Amino acid sequence: MKSYFIGVDVGTGSVRAALVTRNGELLHTSSKDTKTWSPKVGYFEQSTDDIWKAVCSVVKDVTKNVPSNAVKGIGFDATCSLAVMDAEGNPLSVSPTGNNEQNVILWLDHRAFDEAEFINSLKHPVLKYVGGKISLEMETPKLLWLKRNMKEQCWNKAEYFFDLPDFLTWRATGVDSRSLCSLVCKWTYEAHPNGNNGWSEDYFRQIGLSDLMEQNWKKIGSVVKEPGSPCGSGLSEQAAQELGLQCGTPVGTSIIDAHAGGLGMIGCSAGSVCKEFQTRLSLICGTSTCHMAVHKDALFVEGVWGPYFSAMVPGYWLNEAGQSATGKLIDHVIDSHPATAQLKAKIGKNMHIQQYLNSVLENMAKKKGVASVSMLTSDIHVWPDFHGNRSPLADPSLLGMICGLTLAADEENLALIYLATIQALAYGTLHIMHVLCAANHSDIQSLLVCGGLSRNPLFVQTQADVANLPVLCPRESESVLIGAAILGACSAGAFPDVQTALKVMGGEADIVSPRHKEHRYHQKKYKVFLKMVEHQREYRAIMSQD
What we know:
By secondary structure, the chain is α/β, with parallel strands linked by helices. It is built from 18 helices and 20 strands.
């Protein structure tokens, strides 16, 4: 009988599952949308009941044609959202509506702005592990918000505060263990190679959450495991029945969704490209982009989250940078242009609009006798922080800029602005790389790319040209699901360790090589790119004068 593993990915708007073989081949996938409530501006809430029902649906779907005893392990990843349960394990409302179904504060919820500002004003040493400043997307600001604003309705009644990946393993096994990935990356838990791991009592006292120290940190986690290690005795009887699997099926300790993408592709093979983990910078590209780099040494990089020990690859320190809007930015630039409506009507549903714009650019290059599409943008420049800068400037107040606009409003003008935006996103990656290298993360020899934008050849080639490095595109493009399945495989003992698993299940990758003439062109545009943010700050300084 063949053996299979299941990877479950709980994203921002949907739950996905995949049936995966030991060599990393995806056989079946399934997806189901989840609910999100937004009762106030900046508030985004979800339901653990709704999420778990979706998990059960997609797992049953991908396993409907295989015997349940052929599934040897299951792994989960999810967004780093805050789930709250009462003493009976039932959902407890985090919402001003009081509806207990709404018991998850989604990662992108911004209600804890004041709490994050307060925590950062204390300048506690633990913040050096998050680039110097905690984000309001992380969990301790959200916990402080609940205590300040919903003390009677929620805080005093809560028995469990889970990161969503940990809720999933708890719901699957009944065992209250937590993932090192979730706690280190989003909760300020400290982990070190010498095993001196734990919560900072001083930090929680200073920020006003010392009551979480009670009963050995029971509400936020005292049993902490590395991703992929077994959770309890596997699936509980109830969860197994709900999922259509066998009781006791091994369950891997979970991981954050973007980190699952890094795990799923960092071990891929691509010809003679170096396979050492710390030579690879992983880009998980979606609405936003996460840039993941691992190293044997703890490297502190201003404006970049981490270093986090064993948060993604056991035994390695992780630095996590990112861009707050990438796929979302490209969509915005396209959708807000006056030529788009007519263009979409022309091409219909037979072709993706980005594919069509790529062809427009090719035709423009031929007509103008330009050696490369890249060189069409010498007069158009973009600073891409339309939603603030996550890394390396860590300034959420920065705004987008476009230089070189004309009165043109046709599809060729749209194509040029679209191209300049893609280039600007690649310059953002280069900016992150320069900061990493300045902090001794100087071994980077290749980029790895997964997610929606990895399917756009112009985006991938531009990343290669700008960085002057090969870009590896895993042939199995669903790297996040592969990463989750790796956790299930490791929990089942299919591999001696996570490092071996990710090399086997990561599969093969195609190589997109840099073009040196284009790189020289981009070096000039990158100088303009850096000037643009200098100018934005100069303009603000002028306008703030009395």
